[in-house]
Design the sequence.
């Protein structure tokens, strides 16, 4: 694939700069209300890793607390959040998934039950480039876990991408298609135990 992280992000930046230059950023209250209003959604996504590798797939979110990143074949990687745990199934490993408490990852700032971005010390940057609003957030109780930059368009508010920066400085960018609200998503879609059994663990 000739598309690289640098060229893709440069194209997105150029698109953003083409918009009006003086728009006010969306308010933190409006963004918090939007995130809290997300219940069951799905969308296509493009992921750009720190090394420039690009992957695509489908993202399912059932708030609070559940998400599933299902990568397109032949990539068999799978990332799941459910039951308070984040599990990462490595495409190139025959070992069980790596598992972490969801509360110790930046994704909790999207999947949490009651999101309040105006909470003290949670937002470290809030800006607009004229087309999008970016909010850089961290867990005020665990700032060492890294940050998540959420990028929105609107009004109406819509989440377009996020960038997770880990404690070691590595960055993972996830660019979303349009979020499609669905009636419901089955609980089994987010069952880490079921996914382990399906893969023979």
Sequence:
């Amino acid at each position: 694939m000739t598309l690289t992280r640098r060229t893709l992000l440069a194209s997105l930046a150029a698109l953003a700069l083409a918009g009006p230059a003086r728009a006010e950023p969306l308010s933190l209250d409006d963004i918090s209300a939007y995130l809290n209003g997300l219940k069951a959604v799905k969308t296509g996504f493009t992921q750009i890793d720190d090394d420039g590798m690009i992957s695509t797939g489908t993202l399912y979110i059932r708030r609070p607390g559940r998400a599933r990143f299902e990568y397109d074949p032949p990539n068999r990687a799978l990332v799941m959040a459910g039951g308070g745990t984040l599990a990462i199934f490595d495409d190139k490993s025959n070992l069980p998934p790596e598992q972490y408490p969801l509360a110790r990852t930046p994704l909790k700032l999207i999947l949490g039950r009651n999101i309040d971005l105006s909470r003290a010390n949670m937002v470290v940057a809030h800006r607009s480039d004229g087309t999008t609003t970016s909010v850089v957030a961290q867990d005020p109780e665990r700032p060492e876990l890294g940050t998540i930059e959420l990028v929105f368009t609107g009004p109406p508010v819509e989440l377009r991408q996020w960038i997770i920066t880990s404690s070691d400085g590595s960055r993972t960018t996830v660019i979303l298609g349009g979020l499609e609200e669905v009636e419901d998503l089955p609980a089994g879609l987010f069952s880490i135990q079921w996914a382990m059994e399906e893969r023979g663990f």
The first strand starts at residue 40 and ends at 48. The helical segments are 5-17, 28-37, 108-111, 192-198. The domain at 25-198 is CATH 2.50.20.10 (outer membrane lipoprotein receptor (LolB), chain A).
